[in-house]
Design brief:
Number of strands: 0
Mean pLDDT: 86
Shape: globular
Distance between the termini: 116 Å
Helix content: 55-70%
Low-confidence stretches: 1-26, 310-320
Strand content: under 5%
Order of helices and strands: HHHHHHHHHHHHHHHHHH
């Protein structure tokens, strides 16, 4: 009995474990870290929902405001109203109408909406609001397709990128929902980049041409981006050549049908703003790039330094061209274009919007890929939680109160009184 007892005790099979006897369970650090990661993901989803909901709240409430939210909403509405009534846009300037220096695509789309919904700022602002929402969806798709990691974390990175773009609403001075062409232009720009990235160059050239017909300054960027896949010169020449041909034909047809006035407004008038200003050139990077994207730029830098090579997931095109070439070219070319335009007289807070759209896509991809790289390393859960916290901080850095950007009833009443007073004068005012 004694020998048997000692034998069993030596093998640990006779007496119970001390922790089990006390009713305790051994700590599970991996399980607690996994739960912390899951909680961090859900918190990031909630935080990312905030700027999107704030933008929708402000944009919907500003739709029916009957007066100007920005000084050039008036000329945009006048041009759309002319289209709705079948009148030409590019005419000799007169006291009743002077067209603005843009290509005609936005005027025609907004003009059709005015014909259906009535003459007011509502159709134009609705177009901008829907265009911004569609841009958020395209940003989401961009990141989802080109990031790495599990499907759940890819969706998280995509949602965070869209939220960061929505959070830039105050940085553009509430430009996302104005009765102007910029939100529609950004949507077409993102679609053109998506087609350049994934579809046939002829399709991409067609979308770039549509973007050119909204804002003609995009032509150099389109030519540069269609040349990104330089290892396939046939596709490169097909895309760039098609874009040049389609823009030349459309410009020639528009100029011919307007008796030269299209060229005058779209290309001659902008020469009045050719003087470069030193102050906006110097302060563009700190005020328009670093300030709104401080944390995002750090995450991009970390991802580029740590995951430039050897990450899971597709990081190359089918012919072996590194996909990072596409995003590097897109970011640098949009930065140069926006920087150049910002340095001219008349540039406003909408100038940096193309660069913002590209940067948030790169941010989402870098966030997803950096998280996938950390997931490969055992014991890196704290770093992944810290990454989630940093992204959440970027998302909510520029939270605002929608009440501050929505015109209040007292302002509407004062405009109504002013309008009634002006209408009291005899004749045309």
């Amino acid at each position: 009995m004694t020998g048997s007892y000692h034998s069993q005790e030596a093998h640990g099979s006779f007496l119970p474990e001390p922790q089990a006897a006390l009713g305790c369970v051994a700590p599970d650090p991996e399980g607690s870290r996994a739960r912390a990661l899951a909680i961090g993901e859900w918190l990031l989803v909630l935080l990312a929902s905030v700027p999107i909901l704030l933008f929708l709240s402000a944009g919907v409430r500003r739709l029916h405001y009957p007066y100007l939210l920005e000084q050039l909403e008036g000329p945009m509405l006048l041009a759309a109203e002319r289209v709705a009534h079948g009148l030409p846009i590019y005419i000799r300037p007169n006291f009743t109408f002077i067209p603005y220096m843009y290509a005609p695509a936005y005027y025609y789309v907004s003009g059709w909406l005015v014909r259906w919904l009535g003459t007011s700022f509502f159709p134009l602002r609705l177009l901008s609001l829907l265009s911004t929402c569609a841009s958020l969806a395209v940003i989401y798709a961009f990141v989802l397709f080109d990031t790495a990691g599990s499907l759940r974390r890819r969706h998280l990175a995509s949602f965070a990128a869209a939220a960061v773009y929505a959070s830039l609403y105050p940085w553009t001075r509430e430009w996302f929902d104005l009765a102007r062409l910029d939100s529609f232009y950004i949507l077409l720009l993102l679609l053109a980049l998506m087609c350049t990235r994934r579809l046939h160059p002829l399709v991409a050239a067609l979308v770039w041409t549509m973007t050119f017909l909204v804002k003609q300054t995009i032509l150099p960027l389109g030519l540069v981006m269609l040349c990104w896949d330089w290892k396939r010169p046939r596709r490169m020449l097909m895309g760039a050549g098609s874009l040049l041909l389609m823009t030349a034909i459309s410009t020639r047809l528009l100029d011919h049908s307007t008796h030269g006035w299209f060229w005058f407004y779209a290309f001659t008038v902008p020469h009045a703003n050719t003087d470069l200003l030193v102050r906006p050139l110097v302060f563009f990077l700190p005020s328009k790039v670093i300030a709104p994207f401080g944390i995002a730029l750090v995450i991009i830098a970390l991802a580029c330094s740590r995951t430039w090579r050897g990450l899971p997931g597709q990081w190359r095109n089918s012919n072996g061209t590194p996909m990072r070439t596409f995003y590097l070219l897109a970011s640098v070319s949009t930065l140069i274009l926006c920087w150049f335009l910002q340095g001219h007289g008349g540039a406003t807070d909408n100038t940096a919007m193309p660069f913002y759209a590209v940067v948030v896509v790169i941010f989402g991809i870098c966030f997803g890929r950096l998280d996938a790289w950390l997931a490969q390393k055992p014991g890196r859960e704290p770093a992944r939680i810290l990454l989630l916290a940093a992204v959440g901080l970027q998302v909510v850095s520029w939270v605002y109160y929608p009440h501050d950007v929505v015109p209040q009833p007292a302002l509407v009443a004062s405009h109504d009184a002013l309008t009634a007073w002006i209408r009291g004068f005899p004749g045309d005012v």
